[in-house]
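It is worth pausing here to work through a concrete case rather than discussing structure prediction in the abstract. The textbook approach is simple: state the sequence, then state the predicted structure, then interpret. We follow exactly that order.
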Amino acid sequence: MSNRDLHGQAPESAPAALLLIDVINDLEFDGGDRLLPAALQAADRIAALKDAARAKRLPTIYVNDNFGRWQSNFDALIENYLESDVRGAPIVRKLAPSAKDYHVLKPQQSGFFATPLAVLLRYLQVDDLILAGFTTDRCVMFTAMDAYTRGFGIRVPSDCSAAIEQSHHEQSLAYMQRVLKAEVRPGMEILR
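Step two, the predicted structure:
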């Protein structure tokens, strides 16, 4: 690893990173209307968690689906959702990234599959990942599984993600805690 600082763009190291998974989302899919209330509640907690992570000098990395738009970029996704009358616009407004945040577009459920996420985390010298976002039982879970197989410590704030069905959210948290050895507690408790 000859260039540990990504050409001066990344901090020298961080013990953990906050991954915000699919929070830039139009929610215009089957079940998006049922996800919206829980996602709005989680968004408030995610915003507070992001502020707390920044205060601890932990990087925030947006890991977002490209939703099949292969010629898009992250800024275009944000702009499109904010200018459109989409279901997820209030969440995008609340959780829009700052200039200091990182972002990775992903083609599938896992934040690691066919993305540069592992390279970025290696440069940041991250050992633990704090996973938040939508949906708990899909993209958060797949990313947690891939993080586990790569040897990362996993923390999943129980109140900073949501699923279409509350029972699926709870079952997924229990699974990640039992099988992936994830630390599962409320967001403000998880930043120790």
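Step three, interpretation. The first strand starts at residue 16 and ends at 21. The chain has a mean pLDDT of 92.
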